[in-house]
């Protein structure tokens, strides 16, 4: 069965919407934040901990798993879910974004991309067919088409050619797809050009994907420009399909994305900054390594109910970081992922209760104090 | 209240004994293995995980906590238990072993030891009084006297002077002790000389400690020599007091130690080798990074019931190590600590059922297959 989006409610003040995404591995409440498990593990966390913090779906990276341990091995293991002991839904990206990010280490053609592995330097190829072959083998619940993501800034001509290629590749992905349980999402390109977004959306809608991502954003453009693009792009997408904004996970972008009608988000932000000692809290970000927390025996976030905040003080967390103890990375990661999941839960609740914009104001009145 | 040892049963074939150690924070079943939480955390683990694997007591290191974050800070936090969120018993060492291990970086005198911190190079002093002051502040359940631990090999004269000093320091520790809830254990020295062990034990027994450690072992001597020393030293100790063999944790040494009448053990061995990718299993040690486990979809230890073995394959664990993922360190640590705790539980059961030597043979018939 393919995923099916159920629209529960549209916000009266904004484009925000409340919904459910039905999958073969359970129902996901949207809008939702998906923690990232790049290499078949959400860094430092166990699946049980992710469930404890109510993670309903995670993302994993095709590029990384293709290179190591290899999709063939994961297929033999019984698929990615079994390999990593996670029985809730998984979304995999196409690997394209990582390959294109390699810069001079990759070459792009109509066929696909060739590149050198960051692990052993070996020459590798990623085509639309290959991206699907890998994701079919991983057996994720949601797969993404291979798209071409233009940099920012990029000329209209570049972006035009890129979106045309993205459509051709999308068709090749559909043709290559061989896993009936996997829902393949299309990716709308078109850069910062409204008419090109319209053209891309029109072409992809004809292919009738079960869900759509808005690609080519969060690539270096100013945030206001991203919000502007979202503002005119989401209305181009069907109401009965989920909308996914790739690679976005800061609190301001989550609220703005929801406001523009986005249902799904993912980002390494909470796990990455957590391992660097930064926490997102009700009252803004906290760098736990700061000397002022040396004898601070209060919780990381006084309004948080997560495992870390219930059991440990800032002084202890700071000690763990100063002493290079792994438990510090775990506890900060736990808090940050919990924080975003919890914030999304509160966003959904505010949508249900018709007070999304009020909640947004309340949230940032506190968050921006830091 | 000081700890109180209850002798439940003596083994008919060996010097092994089954007992309970009553503490202010619950009863410990002996013989027991104590996981090591050097810097106020058992590396990579949470307290909840340690409880899940039935850790009844942990050890923490005075030297490390003195230098970072400082015992003053931990005292302000409400003591080590509260600081690290562990409400079961904690044993702290005296810091002496770590200071003496600094070699040329430390100077030894009758007063104590001066040394340079491994963290910032600052000059520090550890005297018997200081070792007690620190441990009193940490508020551990069991504290250790500062002793002088001779290297191996060492002349009879060196060891003689050292044990005499250890007795003088033991008295100074008793005089300095200011925490009525903390049980201070004496440490028998005497190196590999039977008559010196006798002299040390005699002198320390006069000081009537609530427990005794056998020090100066596992310092580079052949294992058989250590077992020989244990064989004649444990009978020198009172039957109604617990006996602790410091820094020992390989399966063979645990069985031999129990056989010679030891009740308590600690060692960084399971956590350290785990983080290096080595597991202790029913069928011997396994280096998970080995290529032969690449497509091994069986558990780390087919006879183990721990979280790691119930949920993950060798192939996945190997992937986590190859990809430098922290979850790999967690899962291997979990298994190894669980393995030793479980082995000690089985040892206690075998003592209860009068089949300790049979169990020992069964254990090594399997373990030595690797």
UniProtKB/TrEMBL annotation, chains A, B:
Location of the tRNA-guanine(15) transglycosylase-like domain: 14-368
Binding residue positions for Zn(2+): 304, 306, 309, 335
GO cellular component: cytosol
Listed Gene3D superfamilies: Queuine tRNA-ribosyltransferase-like
This enzyme's EC code(s): 2.4.2.29
Keyword Zinc: yes
Cofactor-binding details, from the entry: Binds 1 zinc ion per subunit.
Binding site for substrate: 93-97, 147, 189, 216
Subunit structure, interactors included: Homodimer. Within each dimer, one monomer is responsible for RNA recognition and catalysis, while the other monomer binds to the replacement base PreQ1.
Name of the featured protein: Queuine tRNA-ribosyltransferase
Organism lineage string: Bacteria, Bacillati, Bacillota, Clostridia, Eubacteriales
